[in-house]
Amino acid sequence: MGIRRRTDDMRASTPAHGADPAARAKAISVVERWKKQLAAGQDLERTGEPSTNEPSSKRSASGEPHHKDRGGNQGLSDVGVLINLAVLALVCVGGYFLLMKLVEISRQEDCFLGGGRNCVRLQVPSNR
Questions:
Q1: Is the pLDDT of residue 67 over 70?
Q2: What distance in Å separates the CA atoms of residue 120 and residue 112, rounded to the nearest whole number?
Q3: What are the angstrom distances between the C-alpha of 110 and each of 83, 96, 103, 117, 121?
Q4: What Rg do the C-alpha atoms of the chain give, in angstroms?
Q5: What residues make up the domain containing 24?
Q6: Residue 10 above 80 pLDDT?
Q7: Where does a domain end: 35, 50, 68?
Q8: Domains: count for the chain
Q9: Is 5 left (phi over 0), alpha (psi -120 to 50) or beta?
Q10: Secondary structure (DSSP) of 21-89
Q11: For 42-60, what is each residue's pLDDT tens digit?
């Protein structure tokens, strides 16, 4: 008795090579069509025919996937970039003030632990 591996189960569940000649012929025709399109310099993603790996429900009537824009790869708009920069600036300013407060508290604790008596600045009203 040998050790069972996951690949053994996968091989057992898949049909043997050449078990379905119609599926093999379809795959060969798709590969040949892709080779012709590549040789002609055509874009494989922009064809009107759905690929064999994606269900046809993911494509629009023009044959393009729904999740892709026709304009190509578009980033954030100018307003989106401005909002992101404003949020980043607010986070940086808030972090600076938090850091300065923590430094002040640390200095006071160091003074108290060192036995100092005048560690905290007292504000006396000016009318006295």
A1: no
A2: 9
A3: 41, 21, 10, 12, 15
A4: 34
A5: 20-68
A6: no
A7: 68
A8: 2
A9: beta
A10: HHHHHHHHHHHHHHHHHHHHT--GGG-SSPPSSS-GGGB-TTS-BTTS-TT------HHHHHHHHHHHH
A11: 777 765 555 555 555 555 5
Instruction: Examine residue 43 and state whether it is found in any structural domain, yes or no.
Output: yes
pLDDT of residue 64: 54
Do 48 and 83 belong together in one domain?
A: no
CA dihedral 94, 100, 103, 108 (to 10 degrees): -120
The first and second tokens of residue 57, run together, are 């429900």
Residue 94 corresponds to which amino acid? Answer: G
Q: Is residue 46, in this structure, part of any structural domain at all? A: yes
Structure tokens at 111: 């003074």
Residues 60 and 83 in one domain: no
